[in-house]
Amino acid sequence: MNIITKVAEEKIRRAIENGEFNNLKGKGKPIIFEDETWIPKELRSAYRVLKNAGCIPPELQLRKEIISLWDLISTIGDDKERLKRLRELNFKILRLNMLRKSPLSIEDFPRYEQQIFEKIIG
From CA 3, how far away is CA 115, in angstroms rounded? Predict the structure, then answer.
């Protein structure tokens, strides 16, 4: 969850506690979450099949590997092994940046994201 989403969720939580959502139109009705309008029409069927098969885009898989590797590095005591894993991490980050065509966001580093969230919410 990115920092903007966390801030929004916190504000929503506070509004719920204050009763600001008690009399909204549509309360109690189901929300449809399967909005595929952002997916081009010619790709919707393929995306649905992949989703049902449990496949994820390469960017998401690589992001998962980066987070796992980041956590692993913090537990390694051997300097030589840590350096090897850091090089692997740098390579994966480079690949992810090339796939995304944009730099990593703060959500890729949850330790910092939580600190920023706490500063914004106060």
Answer: 10
Count, residues in the chain: 122
The per-residue pLDDT for range 20-74, each reduced to its tens digit, is: 888 887 777 876 666 666 667 787 788 778 878 888 777 778 888 988 898 888 8
Place of tokens 């549509």: 26
- Phi, psi at 120, each rounded to 5°: -70, -45
What is the pTM for the complete model shown?
0.46
Burial class (CB in 10 A: 0-12, 13-18, 19+), 65: middle
Instruction: Identify the three-state secondary structure at position 22.
Output: coil
